[in-house]
Amino acid sequence: MALKIAVIGAGNIGGALLGGIVKSRIALPKDIVAIDASDDCRRRVAAQRKVRTLPAATAQAIAGRNLIILAVKPQILPAVLQELRGSLRRGQIILSVAAGVPIAFIESIIGKNIPVFRAMPNIPVVVEEGATAIAGNRATTATQRKLVEKIFGTLGAVVSVDESHLDAVTGLSGSGPAYIYLIIEALIDGGKKAGLPHDVARKLAEQTVLGAAKMVRDSKRHPAALRDEVVTPGGTTIAGLHELEKHGLRSTLISAVEAATARSKELGAQIAERFPQQASSPISVAPTRRRAPAKPRIHSRVR
Ligand SMILES: NC(=O)c1ccc[n+]([C@@H]2O[C@H](COP(=O)([O-])OP(=O)(O)OC[C@H]3O[C@@H](n4cnc5c(N)ncnc54)[C@H](OP(=O)(O)O)[C@@H]3O)[C@@H](O)[C@H]2O)c1
Questions:
Q1: pLDDT digit string (tens) for 170-204?
Q2: Would you list the domain boundaries of the chain?
Q3: Residue 85 and residue 83: Cα distance in Å, rounded?
Q4: Parallel, antiparallel, or unpaired for β 156-160 and 297-299?
Q5: Residue 237: how many other CB atoms lie within 10 Å
Q6: Of 29, 95, 175, 283, which has the maximum CB count within 10 A?
Q7: How close is the Cα of 227 to the center of ligand 1, in Å?
Q8: Residue 98 C-alpha to ligand 1 middle, in angstroms?
Q9: What kind of fold does domain 5-167+275-299 have according to CATH?
């Protein structure tokens, strides 16, 4: 049976998901509806992806959709869920990418028996090199999880984690692109300080980061082993590495992930405080079988 999908919020992340779904033929454009408040955004996705678009998420818009992807900003999510809660049926899957919004919060509005996945992608999904972690509630099945992994697999790497790890995921891969942008910027400045023209330094810096990441990913070897292989006694690399160690790059990056993880926890607590007891009467559907929490798994790209 053809998969019917609704994507609510078709901006950066929703737009990338639409791209991955259409390109990999997980669903056909005629079976996808993109719902977005912005006229520009609707025009863009209709032209690029050839999907139907609507300006607002209504009961009618999601009727008969197997998968409903929520890719609006976290502050918009409660209103969208409230709008949909009476219309959701057993068998429909909710996938939220809203940063910091716990599954329990979504369940508090729509009930515990609707399968809910929460995903934490990062911005390189827009160039199909994202890193995404997903977690699901007890109502989700292995087959549904495979579908969600397949969708994010079209946009890069996917891991399944327990929801309690999503703050750490946010601190590492969610915020990580910004750390790497900073490193690339600094490498460019280093090249310029050593006399290279900007364009040359930029090309070399970006490709060095890309190439090193590819070596780590494709070889599956420990980064320390790869590093050791390029350190010649008395050579240039050890001179550079010594400076990085002296100034604590390793420790700084560990602290950056730790600080961003702590901040993610704080923001999550604020969301919970701002929207306490959303649904005093969540919708009721028949219970589904219970499942053990996911063990961490790593999936390679699905192309
Ligand atoms: N960007 C990231 O790196 C990243 C990473 C991880 C998770 N996320 C999460 O992904 C979600 C989307 O982020 P994004 O960066 O893709 O945001 P975005 O580019 O602003 O996209 C959100 C879209 O939703 C539209 N919208 C607003 N209210 C709506 C409504 N009631 N119904 C339907 N559409 C509505 C917005 O239109 P208007 O512009 O007119 O408001 C906008 O086009 C957020 O929850 C964020 O936390 C983002």
A1: 999 999 999 999 999 999 999 999 999 999 999 99
A2: 5-167+275-299, 174-256
A3: 6
A4: antiparallel
A5: 11
A6: 95
A7: 39
A8: 8
A9: Rossmann fold (3.40.50)
